[in-house]
Amino acid sequence: MSAVDVLIRLVYLAAAACFVIGLHLMNSPGTARRGNRVSGLGMAAAVAVTLVLLIDSGTVTTTGWIVLGAGILIGSIAGLYSARAVPMTAMPQLVSLFNAVGGGAAALVGMHDFLRFGGAGGTLTMTATVAVTLDVLIGAVAFSGSLVASGKLQGWIPGHPMLFPGRAVLNAALAVVIVAAAGLLIAGRAGGPALAVLVLAALVLGVLIVLAIGGADMPVVVSLLNACTGVAVAMAGFVIGNTMLIIAGALVGASGGILTKLMADAMNRSLTAILIGGFGTGDDAGGRSTGGEGVQTIEADDAAIRLAYAARVIIVPGYGLAAAQAQHELREFAGILEGGGVRVDYAIHPVAGRMPGHMNVLLAEAKVPYSQMKEMAEVNPEFPRADVALVIGANDVTNPAARRPGTAISGMPILDVDRAGTVIVIKRSMGHGYAGIDNELYTDSRTRMFLADAKSALESLTAAVKTLVR
């Protein structure tokens, strides 16, 4: 083994350690930034020594280096621009887009190697052929599914489940086609045509699966597709014999799979039920009404009095806050309350927002202290001791209907906001949430509805509270 080989293996080992440490640091909002930096350092080192490996092998032509350099340059510029230009509220759809890029790239690696070395008389072993088949299949599903998920999150595709007659039959037919094409590839028959059929069927299947899933389940879908991309990358590593790809892909696949299970549990829904689709209504623009009987409304001045003279306020942010891009207004408002002696905490439901951790990142961008972000298990016992629970754009995750059987969200863990002394709900209208059912919180005797856009409501509250805490 040459000195270059030893160096490459040592750097790969160090990079893998950085990935593991980075994932561990991402367990807490307070250390998540450092975890990103550590993981990024590991990836930069892995890419650098891979380039050294290519130089040492001498197998890359001048044209190859030009293409490689152009790809690195374009990808780096696109990534840097996306990270700086895309607002934090649009981060879920950007993550879905990145998932698509990863899955598509892994599938292309598998397709290239099969067309170059596979087929009748090829040099691919049976193990490598199986890895290629799995790589192409999972990567293609992750690619098309992630694009659809990104479109749903961006609003380009309706968020409600898109179902049509014969969907189950078509999905079953596609599954049969995929199994047949995969069998032909592994058996070394049909070659390129079987690969083309496999890719096309997997792409269509990815689209159909995600189209049928409603917006309420999108956090789980994003996490699952991330796991699929990781598995596809690991398979690509087996195909080209790169241990770093295998390790990185396996870590992403495993962590994404664990997160998918945790998110499904947080919604009290099985992964099978989520993938079958048809649940929920998508993002309600506010046109429908829950009736309004028994609903008590409140204006900014009255709400400001209750908030300014409270000893403790627990804020419950939801997707409505993110959609209005009102995180900075919320932080300013909370700062004024704190200046007046009010204790303020933030209750974060596991599926708040559009992806795992979305709300934590959104609040961190607005400089909300990590110590004030409380997870559901930690904050639920505190609601009875809160004078006011301020709900901003959250719906299903606060619905007491989850505590009794016979509803669409029965058994779903919720934030116990109805146990606070007073509940103030900021919402655009009395429209339904993703589950498509009435929120029983809104007719509770302790609840007051402040019907307004999150940003304008917080601006009004800020102005009113300022006059009380001077």
Automatic annotation (TrEMBL):
From the record, what ranges are coiled-coil? none
Which SUPFAM superfamilies does the UniProt record give? DHS-like NAD/FAD-binding domain (SSF52467)
What GO MF annotations does this protein's record show?
NADP binding; oxidoreductase activity; proton-translocating NAD(P)+ transhydrogenase activity
Q: Which GO terms describe its cellular component?
A: plasma membrane
As recorded in UniProt, its EC number(s) are: 7.1.1.1
Q: Which residues form the NADP transhydrogenase beta-like domain?
A: 9-463
State whether keyword Cell membrane applies. Answer: yes
**Intracellular or extracellular location(s):** Cell inner membrane
Q: Please state the protein's primary subcellular location.
A: membrane
Ranges annotated as spanning the membrane: 6-26, 38-56, 62-82, 94-112, 124-148, 168-188, 194-213, 246-264
Give membrane topology per the record. Answer: Multi-pass membrane protein
Catalytic function, reaction form: NAD(+) + NADPH + H(+)(in) = NADH + NADP(+) + H(+)(out)
One Pfam family in the UniProt entry: PNTB
Highest taxon of the source?
Bacteria
Q: Enumerate the UniProt keywords alphabetically.
A: Cell inner membrane, Cell membrane, Membrane, NAD, NADP, Oxidoreductase, Translocase, Transmembrane, Transmembrane helix
Concerning its family, UniProt says: Belongs to the PNT beta subunit family.
What this protein is reported to do is described as: The transhydrogenation between NADH and NADP is coupled to respiration and ATP hydrolysis and functions as a proton pump across the membrane.
Q: Which PANTHER family match?
A: NAD(P) TRANSHYDROGENASE SUBUNIT BETA (PTHR44758)
| Protein name per UniProt | NAD(P) transhydrogenase subunit beta
Name its species: Lipingzhangella halophila
